[in-house]
Amino acid sequence: MSVKPATSNRPLSPFMIGPYYRPQLTSMLSITHRLTGLALAFGTIFLAAWVTAAATGPDAFGTFSAIAGSIVGKILLFAYTWALTYHLCNGIRHLVWDTGRGFELKAAYTSGYTVVGASIVLTVLTWVAAFAL
Amino acid sequence: MSLRSPLSQARGLGSAKEGVGHWWMQRMTAIALIPLSLWFVFSVARFPLLDYATMIAWIKSPLVAVALVLYFAAMFYHAALGVQVVIEDYVGNEGVKLVSIVLSKFALFAFGAAAVFAVLKIALGA
Fold first, then answer.
1. Is the pLDDT of residue A4 over 70?
2. What ipTM was reported for this prediction?
3. Which of B51, B68, B111 comes nearest A45 by C-beta?
4. Residue A71 has pLDDT above 90, yes or no
5. Any CB–CB contact under 8 A between A16 and chain B?
6. Is the pLDDT of residue B16 over 70?
7. Mean pLDDT of A72-95
8. Nearest Cα to A119, choosing from A90, A99, A94?
9. Are A55 and B31 a contacting pair at CB < 8 A?
10. Under CATH, which architecture does the B18-124 domain have?
C-alpha cells in the first residue's frame, strides 16, 4: 500500500503567503527586494543595449532613443528607477543587518518604512532633476 | 608534536575557506554599487543621455569611462550572484536548476561583456 507522504501537500515558498501566512511589512519588503533584484537583472539588458547602440552609431542610437523616449519606455524607465532606488536602500538595510544590528521588531519596522519613503523620494527627485535640468 | 595524520589535520582545518565566497562577493559588489549607482542615476538625470552627441562626449571622459566599466562589472557580477540564489531557492528539479543557473550566468556575463566593450569602444575610439 503506497500512501502519498503528507509533506507533498505542504505549500512551498513563496506560495504560502496569503492563505497560510499573513503578510507583514517585513516579509513583503523582503520579497520586494527579490522581485526588484530580478527586475534589475532583466534591466541590465536594457543598459547593455543602450551603450551598445551608442557604440554602433547614430542610427542605432536613434532607434534606441525613440523606444526609450516613448511613453511605454518612460513608464518602464520610471519603474526601473524605483526598483533601483528601492533595491539600493533596502540593500543598505541588509548590509546593516549583516553587522548584527537592527533586528529588534521596532527597528526592523522603522528601517522598513524609511526604505519605502527614501526610495519614493529618490525616484521623484531623479525624475524632477531629469526634467528640470 | 601532533599524532594526527596529515589528512586528519587538513580535515580539521575545514574547507578551502571558500565557503563564504558567494556571500562575500555579493556584499563586496553591493557596497561598490552604492556610490556607483547613485552616481549613475544622478548622471543620467543630469545629462540628456538619449542624445547621441551628449552620450558620446560623456563616455569619452576618462573618469566616466572607468566609472562605467566598474559599474557594469559590479552590476553584472552582483546580478549573476543574485539570480543564482533565486533559482536555487525556487527551482526544485536538479536538472532544470543546473541548466537555469548556467544559462543565467552565460547571459549576464555576455551582456556584461557587451556593455563593457561598448564603453571601451566609444572611450578609445577616434
1. no
2. 0.88
3. B111
4. yes
5. no
6. no
7. 96
8. A90
9. no
10. Up-down Bundle (1.20)
Does the CB of B30 have a partner CB in chain A at under 8 Å? yes
- Greater confidence (B79 vs A23) lies with B79
> Which residue pairs, CB below 8 angstroms and at least 24 apart, start in B15-23?
B22/B81, B22/B84, B22/B85
From CA A106, how far away is CA A96, in angstroms rounded? 15
Interface contact flag, B55 A129, Cβ < 8 Å: no
Residues of A in contact with B68 (CB under 8 A): 51
Chain A residue closest in CA terms to B49: A65
Burial class (CB in 10 A: 0-12, 13-18, 19+), A64: buried
Residue ranges covered by each domain of chain A:
24-41+71-132
Q: What one-character-per-residue DSSP string does A49-115 give?
A: HHHHHHHH-HHHHHHHHHHHHSHHHHHHHHHHHHHHHHHHHHHHHHHHHHTT---SHHHHHHHHHHH
Binned at pLDDT 50, 70 and 90, residue B74 comes out as: very high
* Chain A CA closest to residue B87: A38
- pLDDT band at residue A54 using 50, 70 and 90 as cut-offs: very high
Q: Could you say which of A62, A91, A133 has the minimum Cβ distance to residue B30?
A: A91
CATH of domain A24-41+71-132: 1.20.1300.10
Q: Which of A10, A13, A42, A47 to mutate to test the interface with B (most CBs of B within 10 A)?
A: A47
Shortest distance, CA A128 to any CA of chain B (angstroms): 8
